[in-house]
Amino acid sequence: DRMHGPNAFGTTLLLIYCCWSNICVSKGTGLLMGILRQMEKFLKGQEIRFTEGLRIMKSKLTNLQNSVSKLPQADQSSSQSSCPPLLAPAHGRKFGSKYLVGHEVHFTCSQGYRMIGPGTRVCHENGTWSGVSVVCKDVSVCTSNPCQNGGTCVEALNQYKCTCPHNWSGSQCQYQTQTAPPEWSVMNDPAFSRKPRCAKVDRAQHCSCDAGFHMSGTSDNSICQDVNECEVYKADRGGPLCGHACVNVPGSYHCSCPTGYKLLADGRNCEDVDECLTQQHNCSRGTTCINTGGGFQCVNPECPRSHGNVSYVKTSPLACQTNRWRYNLNRKSHVG
Question: What is the domain range of residue 260?
Answer without folding.
Answer: 183-271
